[in-house]
Automatic annotation (TrEMBL):
UniProt name for this protein: N-terminal E2 ubiquitin-conjugating enzyme
Biological-process GO terms, alphabetical: protein ubiquitination
Residue span(s) of domain UBC core: 7-155
One Gene Ontology molecular-function label: ubiquitin conjugating enzyme activity
Catalytic activity: S-ubiquitinyl-[E1 ubiquitin-activating enzyme]-L-cysteine + [E2 ubiquitin-conjugating enzyme]-L-cysteine = [E1 ubiquitin-activating enzyme]-L-cysteine + S-ubiquitinyl-[E2 ubiquitin-conjugating enzyme]-L-cysteine; S-ubiquitinyl-[E1 ubiquitin-activating enzyme]-L-cysteine + [acceptor protein]-N-terminal-amino acid = [E1 ubiquitin-activating enzyme]-L-cysteine + N-terminal-ubiquitinyl-[acceptor protein]
The enzyme's E.C. designation: 2.3.2.23, 2.3.2.25
The entry's keywords: Transferase, Ubl conjugation pathway
UniProt cross-references to InterPro entries, sorted A to Z: Ub_conjugating_enzyme, UBC, UBQ-conjugating_enzyme/RWD
CDD domains: UBCc_UBE2W
Keyword Transferase: yes
The organism's taxonomic lineage, starting at the top: Eukaryota, Metazoa, Ecdysozoa, Arthropoda, Hexapoda
PANTHER family in the cross-refs: UBIQUITIN-CONJUGATING ENZYME E2
Amino acid sequence: MTSAMSPSERRLQKELMSLIKDPPPGVSVDAEQAEQNLLQWTIHMEGATGTLYEGESFQLQFKFSNKYPFDSPEVTFVGSNIPVHPHVYSNGHICLSILTDDWSPALSVQAVCLSIVSMLSSCREKQQPPDNAFYVKTCNKNPKKTKWWYHDDSV
């Protein structure tokens, strides 16, 4: 690489290395693809043993802006198997507060993967979000543009 790396690329490079070396259980990153384009990663995720998603595998796409880590990544499920889950829309968008309102630069790709694994693992019943059909028809392609209304907010 001849050009100097931006701070966000340096940070992504570091996170990529640690994800390759020490991935969370059931999580692996497509390292070759990520190294070619640091701003877009594909992450493979296995459903955890003993959960509703055991034996299933999923693909997550992470897209980073050059403001990362101050700007949260855009994270969606892609590919042929989108988990059926109350917080995952059938178009792959994930309703998870750390991806929007609760994002912090201290979080990492690893932390996001762990949150998604635990979100899937704690699921008691496979069902789509109640407003799935409406949301998928009307949402923006970028889930970060959605003003999520968290169903479990005690407002």
